[in-house]
Amino acid sequence: MTVVKHNILNDIAVIEISNPPVNAISAAVRIELLETVNKLSVEKNIKAIVITAPERTFLAGADIKEFGKDVDAPILSEICDKIENLDKIVVASLHGTPLGGGLEVAMSAHYRIAAPKTKVGLPEVLLGILPGAGGTQRLPRLCGVSMALDMMLTGKHVPAEEAFANGIIDEIAPNDKTVENGVSYARKLISEGFDVRPTSKITSKVNNLEEIQEIITNAKANALKKYKNLFSPHNIIKSVEEGLNLDFPTAIKNERRLFKECIESPQRQGLIHSFFAERAITKIPELKNGKPSELKKIGIIGGGTMGTGISMAAMNAGFDVIMIEQNQEAIKKAFDKINSTYDRNVNLGRMTTDQKSQIINLFKSDTDMNVLNDRDLIIEAVFENMDVKKEVFIKLNKICNQKCILASNTSYLDVNEIATVVDNPDRVIGLHFFSPANIMKLLEIVVAENTSENTVSTAFMLAKKMRKVPVRSGVCDGFIGNRILSKYLVGTYHMVEDGASPFHIDKVLRKFGCAMGVFQVIDLAGGDIGWATRKRKAPFRHKDDRYVEIADRVCERGWFGQKTSKGYYLYGEGIELFTPNPEIEIICNEERKRVGITPKNFSDQEILDRYIAAMVYEGAKILQEKIAIRPSDIDVVYTNGYGFPKWRGGPMKYADMIGLDKVLANIEKFYQEDKRFWSPPQLLNDLVNNGKNFDSLN
Ligand code: CAA
Predict the structure, then answer these.
(1) C-alpha–C-alpha distance, residues 30 and 3, integer Å
(2) Using only C-alpha atoms, what is the Rg of the chain?
(3) Predicted local distance difference test score (pLDDT) of residue 68
(4) Any ligand 1 atom below 6 A from CB of 98
């Protein structure tokens, strides 16, 4: 299939690239683009070449699927150099999202015109790499080092007007007719006597070396703080700094060398896995035939932390919200929380007062559930107790119209059981938001036995409007995220009782790249929440299950973490965040003594091995039971909701990367100590025995 064609309109050649859906620069595009450029370069009658990609978007970057594979084709960097060195005027006519290699091609053209809604960027950093086709050299020449570094280190998309104001784009087109705009711009350039203008020769923004050095020194200092675990941001800065002191061709070679280092880093594998994993989450059976119903009015039951967070997420997406609370005092408290959150956003310059009042106007509250009769969707966020939830759903069943979707924000409870009290359970679904729900991206969409395809589709549409990352989960205790969390929490307490310090464990996990250690998370969420869950599960615990009581001892003292100023760490004015509570070690020692355990030393590696093994163990069971559709969905849950480092890909990808056989060998070793906790899941055995990994199931 031809992906690059060209037309000749008198003295102007128009190259049209077409590689749907986003015109990624695959090997075929590179081969044909180079051939076309070579062919046109010797056409004497042609004065200008216009590069376009008229479908959905101008080139959205290199074909990410090719990274890490041996691909036999010219590299993009060479093509960009070839384009820049042509002796005919080259115009790139942009629209959509010219990103990464797409913007690099555009920057190697001599002039750029863009449709009004175009957004440009060099987002390679988000994939663990750097712009490897001249981007680290050409972008600073167009917009200056400061803006170029900001764009390359954040990966942000810059709107056309801003790109125009800063020299990245030369002209904003009146509309998005990319071919016509490119041709008329080229014609204008020719008629007005403009000549070729290689970006590499533009030096006005990169000749003040003293000022640039200061910008780079600051960028390096910031990067050490902000991106301390990441590899590619440092290579991006290096490429800019070193390149400015080299002649252009050598700077390009240097960029290539630094690019290759990134390509070979495991972070590239992890981040690119995350990119595709986040795009796979909507590939689920229900969305094939399900039809989303229209949503405008939402009811939220409960004005606690979750209820207020969900209300804000709904209002931010433009939904009309009624919140139900038991009395005026609770309503006032919830409203104050919502109001102060938006005030803070106004004070931080994130929104105007007008925007705030428009959003707040979407909020109503009541103590009478009967006002919910006109709602399209209800999200219940009341106390985590089956009887309480059922009582709410019994009322909703009577009050709400038959089309209204009834959702529970439960984080553990059985959505099938909740659905039994509703006449038509096809409209019952779990929507498990994560706290703070107005900020956290993850939304587990829990599909119960009788949930209809239309209800699931509506939930996914809601997630899209709220800009959440939705992951489908089946029903089980804790769904995907909290079920895995429960497993490794228990495993962590085993380690603590055996001798590991909670603070050592947290340190190892932070070093691994987790946003927080396990005990920091417990303190943040509130120790009382886990305590309630343990009490709920106590009657079902097998008599031979190992149960560590350290967490209960902590809770019995009323130490629930941040909310009580004391937990595993101490909190309060003048106390540095995450200062260990010295009494924790005493409790641990008392408990070890009480159960007759002589504490042993744990190395960093053993702590990490046990943490990963527990996650992979439960992840494999979740897949075996078809609670999660694919391993990469589990990765998305963990990287978006539980602070697992994205650059490690997620727990399942990480297991693949270190070798599933090694993880299984660890589980088998731990199994010798505790046969009930570590009995290896069948799926894991099968994968390893067949020489496969989790990726083979994605
Ligand atoms: N390579 C391969 N496939 C890509 C791709 C790329 N660069 N960009 C997007 N796709 C695929 C997606 O995987 C998705 O495929 P499926 O439909 O099979 O799931 C499809 O294109 C559509 O993508 P989205 O669902 O993300 O569509 P969107 O409209 O929401 O967003 C986009 C479009 C803004 C381009 C977004 O896809 C995106 O940000 N893509 C990545 C852009 C990028 O990072 N470019 C830099 C690449 S690295 C590089 O260029 C290095 C270099 O220096 C040469």
Answers:
(1) 10
(2) 28
(3) 83
(4) no
- Atom of ligand 1 lying closest to residue 77 CA: 54
Contact residues for 230 (Cβ-Cβ < 8 A; gap 6+): 125, 128, 267, 647
pLDDT of residue 399: 97
pLDDT of residue 21: 96
Judging by beta carbons within 10 Å of its beta carbon (0-12, 13-18, 19+), is residue 540 exposed, middle or buried?
A: exposed
- Ligand 1 touching residue 100 (CB < 6 A): yes
* Residue whose C-alpha is closest to residue 132's, from 282, 317, 264: 264
Distance 17 CA to ligand 1 centre (A): 16
Mutate to test the pocket of ligand 1, among 64, 122, 258, 460 (most ligand atoms within 8 A of CB): 64
Are 378 and 396 within 8 A, CB to CB?
yes
Q: Is 104 tagged catalytic?
A: yes
How distant, in Å, are the alpha carbons of 154, 290, 295, 397, 399 from that of 375?
Answer: 40, 21, 9, 12, 10
Does residue 252's CB lie within 6 angstroms of at least one atom of ligand 1?
no
The pLDDT value given to residue 668: 97
State residue 4's pLDDT score: 98
If you take atom 20 of ligand 1, which residue's CA is the nearest one? 21
Please say whether the beta carbons of 119 and 157 come within 8 A. yes
Cα–Cα distance, 503 to 517 (Å, whole number): 8
Walk along the chain (698 residues) in steps of 10 and give the mean pLDDT of each run: 94 97 97 97 96 96 91 92 98 98 98 98 98 98 98 98 98 97 98 97 94 96 93 98 96 97 95 97 96 97 96 98 97 97 96 97 97 98 93 97 96 96 97 95 98 98 98 97 96 98 97 95 90 89 95 97 95 92 97 97 98 98 98 98 96 98 98 96 97 96
Distance 103 CA to ligand 1 centre (A): 13
Residue 133, helix vs strand vs coil: coil
127 pocket-lining for ligand 1 (C-beta < 6 Å):
yes
CB of 424 closer than 8 Å to CB of 453: no
Give the β-pairing of 442-446 and 428-433: antiparallel
- pLDDT confidence of residue 537: 87
Exposed, middle or buried, 236 (CB in 10 Å: 0-12/13-18/19+)?
A: buried
Token couple for 83:
């384009």
Q: Helices then strands (H, E): number in the chain?
A: 30, 18
Q: Which residues contact 615 (CB under 8 A, 6 or more apart)?
A: 484, 487, 488, 638, 651
